[in-house]
Amino acid sequence: MTVVHPELRRATRGARRPLLAATLLQGAVTLTHLAQAVLLALALADLARGRTERLPWLLAAVLVVVAARAAATTRQRRTATRAGAEVRVALRDELLARLGSLGPAYLTTARAGAVRTTLVDGVEGVDAYVSRYLPQLLITLTVPPLLLAVTAAVEPTALFGLVPALLLALLGPRAWDRLLAARGREHWDTYERLGADYLEALQGMPALRAAGAVGRTRARLEERSAALHRSTVAQLRVSLVTTGITDLAIQGGTAAAALLACWSAVGGATTATGTYLVLLLASECFRPVRDLAREWHAGYLGASAADGIAALRTAAPAVRDTGTAPADWPKAPELRFDNVGFTYDGASAPAVDGVTFTAPAGRTTALVGPSGAGKSTLLALLLRHHDPGDGRITLDGLPTTAYTLDALRKGVAVVSQTTYLFHATIADNLRAARPDATDDDLAAAARAAGVHDEITALPDGYATVLGERGATLSGGQRQRLALARALLADARVLVLDEATSSVDERREAHIVRALTEAAGDRTVLVIAHRLAAVRHADHIVVLDAGRVDATGDHTHLVEAGGVYARLVAAGRTHPEDVAA
Ligand SMILES: Nc1ncnc2c1ncn2[C@@H]1O[C@H](COP(=O)(O)OP(=O)(O)OP(=O)(O)O)[C@@H](O)[C@H]1O
């Protein structure tokens, strides 16, 4: 029952109306409880006096009130659920958009599993907090004071029992707020870490098995689960203390008010109706407090996740999206790296330094170099996952920073075997690039990428559902499917990233040729890790230790000696292989 976290207050912004409606309906439910209390007090007083003529009417009215409450409760739950759903969808949209603008650079520091936990469980918790706890909080702050006013009019002495008990029930637990918030944060951190560890263990299962580390990972996950259990119990312990205080105050307050009302009745100071009314109102006074304690438990996860959600929502992107140009080049643009230098945060030496080369418009340029030469870094800079520390990268003469991030990333399509394929049909995976593409568009793109015949040979053709991470396809097929997707997106610049080639060199060279042919008049940059793939490229840029070592075609570069000739001689691009 802590003060509302600013992040949670903010989450209510988009659904103020349904939340207000849910609160008013909750108020209506409370009113039915009060009406029932009044009617029962009258009925009991009549019974005590031996008068029965009004009884049937009173009891019938009680039934009507009960029916009205059932209707109001149903309506209230429906409205609150709708409000919660609106809050949940808006928050997830916002967080996903933020993740999109943060880009992959963010996930090199934050763990994917932890982000998933925040996005899924955290947001679910916010829904419960906002749609159930907050309306109840408003009712709790308004109804008991009103009832105290009514009680004061009927039987003021009962206030001596009710007021201190209400204050204790509401303010007593506040003494534990700080501890509860700290335990909540601790619990959430442990929960996030467990989620992240599980996701990593699942995704890395083949690697763990190959390294014989499954047992060790299981032990670590067990330790994480035990830590979550300990933190849940620690949190629960504090929670039980506060709930205990609330319960004690409620029971004590009701009993004290009842005793005072009876004492006053015995002294003849109140009527029978007044005494019964005070007895029933005393109980109604505490109902919102009791309900609030219950809803607090439902929304507790949201309150704990609020810090994590705020951190994700306000995380600073690695680059600023201040460009305005639309990247709608009529023809394929020229791509130029102009004296580009970049040093990763915390690194002592630059990853790339003074890199200058041009990838001519509508032609294929290959970027080669030993492992660690800086090829992936240049790709990350081109896509603006980071901005260069020195120099600039231009497309069609304009620096990449002049384009909107969205336009830039749509204008430059990356094809790689690590391209994510979703657990969906092949058609849906292709349509991720262009949702309105017709079946003919899909087939044309797949044909150009040389994967159409293989798709139609599958029993379900384009309706084949791919496994997690596209595991049902071979490396080459995945790559060609990724190319088909890029062709559908109609980006004018294609980057072929050969980062994790799982096919043999001959096949790879064949794929690269097919892909560059399919690319048509686009500007293509092939990031090659094996030379067989690029020996036919007419323009090769050789990178070494973050600098351009040479540029030219295969024959020219072999004749010139240097890094390229050594790589060719070694038949590999890895320095250790070169040295061998
Ligand atoms: N996130 C990072 N943080 C710090 N240093 C990094 C990071 N990523 C890469 N580096 C460093 O930057 C340099 C260039 O790496 P990069 O991944 O660009 O090379 P590469 O040519 O793509 O290598 P490979 O062929 O092995 O993929 C290397 O020294 C690498 O250790």
Rg over CA atoms: 34 Å
Low-confidence stretches: 573-580
- Overall structural class, as computed from helix and strand content, comes to alpha/beta
Small-molecule binders: adenosine-5'-triphosphate
Task: Report the average pLDDT across residues.
Answer: 86
Shape summary: elongated
CATH topology name of the largest domain: ABC transporter transmembrane region fold
| CATH architecture descriptor name of the largest domain | Up-down Bundle
The DSSP helix count reads 20
How many strands?
10
* CATH domain class of the largest domain: Mainly Alpha
Largest sheet descriptor: 6 strands, mixed
- Physical arrangement of strands within the biggest beta sheet: 6-7-8-3-9-10
Give the CATH superfamily of the largest domain.
ABC transporter type 1, transmembrane domain
Number of domains: 2
Pfam family, one: ABC_membrane
GO molecular function: ATP binding
Subcellular location: Cell membrane
Protein name: ATP-binding cassette domain-containing protein
Characterise the protein shown here.
There is one protein chain. The protein is of the alpha/beta class. It has two domains: 6-314, Up-down Bundle (ABC transporter transmembrane region fold); 335-420 and 492-579, Rossmann fold. It is 63% helix and 10% strand. It contains 20 helices and ten strands. The strands form two sheets. The protein has a six-stranded mixed beta sheet with strand order 6-7-8-3-9-10, sandwiched between helices. α17 (505-518) links the parallel β7 and β8. The longest helix has 53 residues, at 214-266. Residues 573-580 have low confidence and may be disordered. The protein binds adenosine-5'-triphosphate. Adenosine-5'-triphosphate is lined by residues 108, 344, 347, 351, 369, 371-377, 499, 529. Adenosine-5'-triphosphate binds next to α11. InterPro entries: AAA+_ATPase, ABC1_TM_dom, ABC1_TM_sf, ABC_transporter-like_ATP-bd, ABC_transporter-like_CS, P-loop_NTPase, Type_1_exporter. Residues 20-301 form the ABC transmembrane type-1 domain.
